[in-house]
Write a structure and sequence with these properties.
Layout lengths: L8 H16 L15 H6 L29 E6 L20 E4 L5 H13 L6 E4 L4 H7 L5 E5 L13 E4 L9
Parallel strand pairs: 2-3
Antiparallel strand pairs: 1-4, 1-5
Length: 179
């Protein structure tokens, strides 16, 4: 199974399902793959994993593969306290046009990044991308700059914004933004 190990509503459902599978099928072997050189989607297409949990629907699905919706999850918008968004809440989607998303060279974060891009695209917005070498979710929260934003699933504890006093959960003027 290719899955970005994290703490979120989605992950708790997935991990709980795995635990129940193991109870009813004691010979079943489950292995969580978090490979930094292969993105989650490609891990299945290349045969590295049998199943992947993506944060958004891929643009194309190869013949012989399927992609089924798992659920809809509310999302949150995070920004730096020194960025202008902090002072002008609630944030309107068009206010984000002068900000950037952060992408990691580590492919394990591709599904999360794709979800952020997909959410903004559905709202009619494309943001510039700042690329950095980041190897943990905490690094995203700890290195976010005043001209950058990040979108997470609501209640996701991993982007450790609570340990970075410069980050702020922003009030976003979008009715229940979802991934």
């Amino acid at each position: 199974v290719s899955l970005l190990p994290c703490s979120s509503e989605q992950a708790e459902i997935i991990y709980g399902a795995f635990a129940r599978l193991r109870q009813s099928h004691s010979n079943l072997t489950l292995k969580i793959i978090a490979d930094n050189s292969v993105d989650t989607y490609s891990s299945v297409v290349l045969g590295v994993a049998d199943v992947a949990f993506l944060a958004s629907q891929p643009e194309s699905i190869p013949e012989g593969f399927t992609c089924e919706p798992f659920g809809i999850f509310n999302i949150e918008l995070w920004g730096h306290r020194k960025g202008g968004l902090y002072k002008n809440q609630p944030v309107k989607t068009e206010d984000l046009k002068d900000y950037a998303l952060v992408a990691s060279t580590n492919k394990v974060f591709s599904a999360w990044f794709d979800m952020q891009v997909d959410v903004l695209r559905r709202l009619g917005l494309t943001l510039p991308i700042h690329i950095r070498e980041l190897n943990t979710l905490n690094e995203f929260a700890l290195t976010l700059k005043p001209d950058e934003v990040m979108i997470t699933q609501a209640g996701n504890d991993d982007p450790s914004a609570h340990i970075n006093p410069d980050l702020q959960l922003l009030e976003w003027d979008v009715t229940n933004p979802q991934s």
